[in-house]
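Reply to thread "Modeling small-molecule complexes from scratch"

Following up on the discussion above, here's a worked example others can learn from. I took a protein sequence and the SMILES for zinc ion and predicted the complex. Inputs first:
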Amino acid sequence: MRPNFFNLIFIACVVVLVTACFCSSGREDEKPSPQSQANRIDDVDTDTDSSTAAKKKDEGDFIVEHSEVGTPRYIEIDRQVKSEKLLEKAADKLNRALVLPTDIHLRTKSCNQINAFYDSGDQSVTMCYELMEHFYKTFKSVGHDDAKAYQKMNDAVRFVFLHEIGHALIDIYKLPVAGNEEDAADRCSAYVNLKELGDEGVRAVFAAADAFAIESKQSEGQKKNLADEHLLQEQRFYNSLCMIYGSNPSKYSNILTEGYLPKERAVRCQTEFTRTVDSWISLLGPWRKS
Ligand SMILES: [Zn+2]
C-alpha cells in the first residue's frame, strides 16, 4: 500500500475548518506504541505477575453510546462510523483484554466544537461529529472522492479514538506519565494500531499522519501553537511516520528511501517503537485479564 500522504504533504491546501489538534486543548474537564506474539494485548498473560493481576477486580466495562443525530449533515457521517463499528469493535476487544475499576463510556455526539476528548468527571470518551466532518472535509479538500474521504475519515477517527482511550487508561489506572501526556496518548494509539489492529491499524496511523501534514500547512507560524500541550502537528506527523517505519523498517522502507523521514531520525525508530510498545505492555500488564 502506497501511503497517500506522500502526495498530500506537497499539496498546498485550503480547508474550511481549522483545528490545532485532534484532542481538546481547552479541556478543563479532562485530566490533565517488536514484541513477541505472547505480548498481544488480548493474549492470556503468561509473563507478567499473575498474582498482581488477580488482585484487580473487574468492576466495569467499555460501553458504547451513540446519541441521536439531530443535524442532517451528520447523518451520513454517523452512518459511516456505525457501519464501521469502530467503537463497538474496540469496546469488545478492550473488554476481553482489560480489567476495569469502573465503566468507561464511549460516545459519539454533536459537541458544537471540532474535538474529541476524555472526561475524567464521568469517565467518558467523546468523539464529536464535528471532528469527523472536519476529517472528511480535510481529505476531500486534497482531491479524494467521497468513498476515499469517508474511509480516511474512519481511519483518522480510529487513531484519535485510541488516543483518547490512552488518556482514559492513564486516568483510571493512575498510570505514571514521565513526559508529555498528549505524546503518551499518541504513542498509546500508535502501539494499539500498529501492534494489535493489522492493516486497518496501519491505515489509521497513515491517515492521522496525512491529517497532521495538512493541518500543519494551515497553522504555520502561529505562535500560540508553541504553547499548546500537544506537540506541533509537524512533530506528530514525523512521530507517526517514525512509529510506522519502526514497526517494520523493511516493509515501510519507502518512508526512508523516498525522503519523508530524515535518516537521522529513521535510524532510531525501531528502538523508539519497541520502547513504546514495551512501555505500554508493562503499564497495562497488571490490568490484563488472565
Ligand atoms: Zn489528548
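What I'd highlight from this example: Confidence is low (pLDDT under 50) at residues 5-21, 24-51. The chain has twelve helices and four strands. Questions welcome below.
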